[in-house]
Amino acid sequence: MSGNNISKVVIVGGGTAGWMAAAGLGKLLGKNLDISLVESDEIATVGVGEATIPLLAGFHNLLGIEEQDFMRASQSTFKLGIQFENWGAIGDRYLHPFGVVGKDCWACSFHHFWVKSIQEGNPSDLGQYSIHQQAANANKFGHNADSDLQYAYHFDASIYARFLRAFSESHGVKRVEGKVVDVVTDIDGNIDCLHLASGQILDGDFYIDCSGFRGLLIEQALHTGYEDWSHWLPCDRAVAVQTASIEEPIPYTRSIAHSAGWQWRIPLQHRVGNGHVYCSSYISDEEAEKVLRDNVEGELLTDPRIIRFRTGRRLKQWNRNCVSLGLASGFLEPLESTSLHLVQAGLIRLMQLFPSRGIVQAEVDEYNNQSKLEFEYIRDFIILHYHATQRTDSPFWIHCRTMDVPESLRRRIALFRSNGLIFREQLELFFEGSWAQVMIGQRIIPNGYHPIVDIMSKAELSSLLTGVKASNEKTVSRLGSHQEFIDKYCKAGSIG
Asked: In this predicted structure, what is the pLDDT of residue 50?
């Protein structure tokens, strides 16, 4: 295979991951490739990944997708961050916002100045210095030179997949309806062709597995192996349901911790997406569904459905002539809305290393190493939310608070607890501000701060904090409501 040119690509599985792959390859490499996507109408997709992070806008820009067109089509709203409720302790609430909090300096992040102010007896909420939190609290939104808000989207995942399908087909991607019943490998162990239930045989030079948890190619055919992280991330199921909207959509996702997991609430233009992620060792499916039903608002539009999963990742995201994307490559629960980012990042990485002149093992190894690091960085950030808690009200939270965590995360917590230090590592998704917001939001307050802060007098420090807060308040006061902006900019069914 290493000496063969790659010109024919087969994507197995539709859904968001499959059609993101098709859209990217079709638009950016399609002139040199024959691309087919095979999916079956008989096989349902998970379809609950309805919240994103800001990097998706870059993916759309790369493909030339107009934001207003995408948002109208997918019933999208804007997202300024995630509000976490009951995570540090019952009654706690904080926002993990996009964008910088306060004003950083060359030596340290803004939270160091905040820590000194706290130690001097001036209590305040770190979120007061985030323009994103102030806008979210006021249910306001706007994007222009004055506000400079970093934002992401809430959207209907099923509609989004259909939107990308139309885009992909307009760039030459061929959709094949059918169910894969057999994967044939050659003498060297590479995937040779696919047999469909219809009797059709589909062959390619290179395959992308977007078949979901089944891992039809990467696992069932190539036996790649799976690294299980459920000892660190014990939630293994989710129950999801859609409800009717009863109020204007808020510009943030809500993550509400319960006794054995947490609930998401994602507002779209036409409805609300809801789900309860939980650990089946501490609560039954029936009890978990009841918790969700008791904590949603509005009429149920769908029947609740159970989704089973196992957190972890494939030992290789690229094995032989197959790359896995989406749930086929691994699963990190949707706590920080990273699922679609991992699809996007894996796809961009594949296009950067695309084996047009044949597969080179050094490039495969580089792809897998980068993928491994990215998964692990995000894994640690998600584990932090569970581990950094003072809750003792249920066996689940006691387990999370007292469990062993990866050494990489233990080191981060110790650095932050001592003097507020955070160092962003290579390929890491989350910036220093994200780590600080979650740790402080969940009651890990540094004992010290960077010595450069002591250069400022008390009056200068007070002036800095007051000035940042006042500047944000002034900017937010000029913004209209989130709903008003949607109505003018991207209301579903409107014409731009």
From this structure: 86
